[in-house]
Structure formats: C-alpha cells, structure tokens
Amino acid sequence: MTRLPESSSWEEEIELISRSERVAGGLDGPANRPLKSLANRTRYLKDQADTADESIAEKVSAVKTFAEGATLESPREEILFDSYRLVWTGEFPKTVLAGSTPQGTGGIGAGCWAYTSDAVIR
Questions:
Q1: 17 and 34 in contact (C-beta within 8 Å)?
Q2: Domain Tail spike TSP1/Gp66 N-terminal spans what residues (predicted)?
Q3: Which of 17, 24, 93, 103 is the Cys-Cys partner for 29 at CB 3.0 to 4.6 Å?
C-alpha cells in the first residue's frame, strides 16, 4: 500500500464515485479521488491552524513584572504590576527597574503606561 501525496489546497468539491464508474485504485483512480481531495483539505486546514497558532504566539504576553524589572522592546509586551496588566505607549526600549511602580517610571496616560484590562475599575 502506498500513501497519497498531500498538497495544501482547499478543494471546493469532493467527488462522489458514481455507480457507472469502474472503481479502480491508483493515484488518480476514481476510488482515491475523494480521499485525495479530503487529504488536501485536511492539510490546508492544518496549515491554517499552525499559522494561527504562530500569530497568537506573537501577540501580547505578560511574563514580565515591575517586581523583577524588565526591558520592554515593543508595545505588544505587557508587564504586570500586582494584578494589573500594563503596556508602555512611549518610546522603546523601556527599562523598568526591579521594585519600581508605573507612577515612578513615567506615570499613567498617553505616551506613558496604559492599562490593558478593566481590573483598575473593578
């Protein structure tokens, strides 16, 4: 038994073997055409899911803290202050010394720190 080659392509239709067709195997045989289309769709969907996973991984992350100090390189990087998540909206890189606070490192507002959740108003 051999394996079907897959290509990452969306197949608009999945063929149905008609009663009048002579069922034959082989790479392009009528018995394998629907399977090949489904394999191509599956590969396409897996590639789309992998791309989405990569995109999500590049989004905002909050692993840095004011308690430990950090250097932020982009506005996608969140930093934690107690249970609050903040982003820096000023110029980069932004260095945060260990044990500092948002108020002590630029304040809250435009071009400074911005909260990224509604925890502040709860």
A1: yes
A2: 58-117
A3: 24
Please tell me the total count of domains within the chain. 2
Matching residue, tokens 């709860």: 122
Contact status, residue 76 vs residue 59, Cβ threshold 8 Å: yes
Instruction: Provide the whole-model pTM.
Output: 0.51
| Alpha-carbon span 122 to 113, nearest angstrom | 19
The predicted-structure confidence for 60-90, as pLDDT tens digits, reads as follows 567 899 999 999 999 989 999 998 999 999 9
State the Cα–Cα distance between residues 3 and 122, nearest whole angstrom. Answer: 57
| CA atoms within 13 Å, Cβ hemisphere of 119 | 11
Query: Taking the CA atoms of the chain, what radius of gyration do you get in angstroms?
Result: 26
Q: Which one-letter DSSP state was computed for residue 90? A: S
| Residue 2 forms part of a structural domain | no
Say if 15 falls within a structural domain. no
- Any idea what the CATH number is for the domain that residue 98 is in? 2.10.10.80
Do 66 and 46 share a structural domain? Answer: no
